Write a sequence for this structure.
């Protein structure tokens, strides 16, 4: 079955440490996204990528970094510069380009807790 | 710019009662509209979407939504709530074809009591 796989599902980190969240998709989608979800705030866009080797900042990119070296993979690094990293992180993809309706397909999420 | 407003962060219904979750949008271009559902500690799953054509859209699990341009609304309804419908629901708006970033509302948590 095609889909999006995020790992790990739960992650604990000490303050001052960087951590990388994995996101892999086998839907052959061009576009990939990272969202952060906090209670009562909905989904906020961190970074997105329309094509391999290219990505853009979203609304809350400070303290995060990404790479897009392969079409299937879009890892997110939460750096020590992120002041409040405890959150639920969601990876998504869409067909992209000139096709599709913009519908997003989501992974199961990764919950990061900073101790 | 586009935006979405979901009225009510929490909605409570009894099992078997009508479910109505409200969504109003703002868009300078004809919108594409989406409803997603999220169960605890899971990702979002598409319930239904409106792109063009028929304004009454039917989705999974018995949900439907009607696009009303004059009211800039896309409310989600289900005639009879089931316990398994308890979840968080998100409305989102997009600009149409081509690459786009969906704008999400803040979500409405549906509580279903027996």
């Amino acid at each position: 079955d095609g889909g999006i796989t995020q790992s790990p599902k739960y992650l604990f980190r000490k303050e001052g440490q960087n951590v990388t969240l994995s996101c892999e998709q086998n839907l052959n989608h061009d576009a990939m996204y990272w969202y952060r979800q906090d209670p009562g705030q909905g989904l906020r866009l961190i970074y997105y990528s329309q094509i391999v080797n290219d990505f853009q900042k979203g609304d809350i990119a400070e303290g995060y970094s990404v790479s897009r070296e392969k079409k299937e993979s879009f890892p997110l690094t939460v750096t020590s510069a992120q002041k409040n990293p405890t959150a639920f992180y969601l990876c998504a993809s869409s067909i992209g380009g000139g096709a599709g309706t913009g519908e997003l397909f989501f992974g199961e999420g990764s919950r990061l807790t900073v101790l | 710019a586009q935006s979405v407003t979901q009225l009510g962060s929490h909605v409570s219904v009894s099992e078997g009662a009508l479910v109505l979750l409200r969504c109003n949008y703002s868009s300078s271009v004809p919108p594409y509209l989406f409803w997603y559902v999220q169960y605890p500690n899971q990702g979002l799953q598409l319930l239904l979407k409106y792109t063009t054509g028929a304004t009454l859209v039917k989705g999974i699990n018995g949900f439907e939504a009607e696009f009303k341009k004059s009211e800039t609304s896309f409310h989600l309804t289900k005639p009879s709530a089931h316990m398994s419908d308890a979840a968080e629901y998100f409305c989102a708006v997009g600009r149409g074809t081509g690459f786009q970033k969906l704008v999400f509302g803040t979500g409405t948590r549906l509580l279903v009591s027996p």
User: Anything to note?
Assistant: The two ends of chain B are 41 Å apart (CA to CA). The mean pLDDT of chain B is 93. The CA atoms of residues 1 and 69 of chain B lie 17 Å apart.
